[in-house]
Amino acid sequence: MSDFPVVEADPDVTRQVLADHPDLMVVNFTFAKEGAEGKLHQHPHIQSTFVQSGRFKFTVAGRQFDVGPGDSFVIPGDTIHGCVCIEPGTLIDSFTPRRDDFL
Question: Number of folded domains in the chain?
Answer without folding.
Answer: 1
